[in-house]
Amino acid sequence: MKLYWSPVELASRLARRGVKYNFASGAPDPDLLPFDELRKSFERVYEEYGKAIIAYPGAGGLRELRVELSRYVNRVLGINANWRDVIVTAGAQHAIKLLSQLLMRRRTVVYVEDPTFVETVAPMKFQGAKLIGVPIDNEGMNIHELERLVKIHGPGIVYTVPNCHNPTGVSLSRDRRKHLIEIAREHELTIIEDDPYTSLHSNAEPTLKSMSDDVVYVGTLSKVLGPGLRIGFVITNGALRNNLEKLEQHDFAASTLNQYLVYDLLRRGVADDVVRRARELYPRKLRELIEALDEYLPNALIYRPICGFYAFINTGVNAWELLRRSIRQGVVFVPGGKFFISGAKENTARLSIGSIRIDLIREGVKTLSSVIMAT
Ligand code: PMP
User: Fold this and answer.
1) In the chain, domain spans
2) CB–CB of 216/79 below 8 Å?
3) Is the beta carbon of 168 within 6 A of some atom in ligand 1?
4) Helix axes 358-374, 270-296, angle to 10 degrees
5) Identical topology for domains 7-34+272-374 and 49-270
6) Of 164, 148, 165, whose CA–CA distance to 114 is shortest?
7) Do 215 and 193 touch, CB atoms closer than 8 A?
8) Running DSSP on this structure, what letter comes out for residue 172?
9) Atom 12 of ligand 1, nearest CA residue
10) Most CB contacts within 10 A, which of 21, 65, 262, 288?
11) In 3D, which of 259, 194, 261 has the Cα closest to residue 61?
């Protein structure tokens, strides 16, 4: 098994050298993160819980946090879950790694959007899963095509980012959601819904989990409270929930201290406050990006993004080559080739509005377009 550096990591390393226009990072806007509140939370849990904050966490996570998370997903995402069905992980990425270890073996069939998020499919490939790419358009995964592929390759798992997809920015339409849930029942497909972005947008479609309890839901606090806290969660039930709790003991990866901090930030309403501000800022940033692309790189957008952080574009030239040139003008992005399951298209790129300042987006796109024109 050969392991690769993720293209997101590579581009982020370049960005650390101090670029002006960082379209590479999927990290949230630093201005939204509740940095001062974090300090208050530390003081509160230090006083209230003492040395328990540095004890081992219990299997499945801190009970107080699980309870707060079940309330949070209800308030913000319309998901009804018993706190026992919420299993805390060290971020969504860790959650997907654990789920891959539990559900996937050599040749397990996993249906994914094509393109898909390169980092979350890495642990699936590591398990030896057989990834089947399903085409995606402006209404999300093509479910008719999924159904056709299931008839060929058989039952398995559907890994999907139905809202604010990474890297394309599209969302699964309401009709396709119903269809997906129907065919999952009919063909014994387990749906894993990876959902980091729904909470950041008030216009997002309802989660699959809120439509069907059979869905295995993966959530994260990375985009709301800070990715370095490494707190995410899975909502599932029955045998899978029990096994996840047991597997989670193999590494106890979610730090007790961070679980207490996130618990306190949730109970004081700090996360809700960030969500409120995020729902105002990120849609504006995404609109700014789309308008700038329409003006300076018309026809570049392959999909019309409607929420989340990302736009996926046709660069017209090899994107790694373009990146080498654009860095000199202060622009970084993530080349898109590695996001594809079949037939890597190397003339594509993912642009993110996550952490770039809103007032730099237009100028950044203009600079990128001038580099493309000169290539
Ligand atoms: N899944 C998707 C679709 C993502 O976009 C991201 C973050 N870029 C993750 C998972 C990972 O999130 P976390 O920081 O919680 O591991």
Assistant:
1) 7-34+272-374, 49-270
2) no
3) no
4) 30
5) no
6) 165
7) yes
8) -
9) 92
10) 262
11) 259
- Alpha-carbon gap, residue 31 to 72, rounded angstroms: 22
ipTM, two decimals? 0.99
Q: Say how many Å lie between the CA of residue 94 and the centre of ligand 1.
A: 9
What's the gap in Å between 92 CA and the centre of ligand 1? 6
DSSP labels, 322-368: HHHHHHHTTEE-EESGGG-SSS--TTEEEEE-SSS-HHHHHHHHHHH
Tokens representing 117? 């998020």
Does residue 91 have its Cβ closer than 6 Å to ligand 1?
yes
Asked if residue 194 has its Cβ within 6 Å of ligand 1, the reply is yes
Binding site membership of 93 for ligand 1 (Cβ less than 6 Å): yes
pTM of the model: 0.97
Ligand 1, atom 5: closest residue by C-alpha: 166
Angle between helices 118-126 and 7-16 (to 10 degrees): 130
**Phi, then psi, of 212 in degrees rounded to 5:** -150, 125
d(CA 283, CA 252): 36
Q: Mean pLDDT for each consecutive 10-residue tract of the chain (375 residues)?
A: 81 78 95 97 98 94 97 96 98 98 97 96 96 98 98 98 98 98 97 97 92 97 98 97 94 96 98 97 98 97 97 96 93 95 94 97 98 90
d(CA 304, CA 156): 30
Segment holding 191, helix H or strand E: strand 190-194
Q: How is the beta sheet containing 310-314 ordered, strand by strand?
A: 310-314, 348-352, 334-335
CATH number of 49-270: 3.40.640.10
Domain spanning 7-34+272-374: CATH 3.90.1150.10:
yes
Cα 7 to middle of ligand 1, angstroms: 14
372 lines ligand 1 (CB under 6 A): no
- End-to-end CA, the chain: 36
Is there an atom of ligand 1 within 6 Å of 308 CB?
no
Query: DSSP readout, 57-78?
Result: PPTTS-HHHHHHHHHHHHHHH-
* H or E stretch covering 108: none
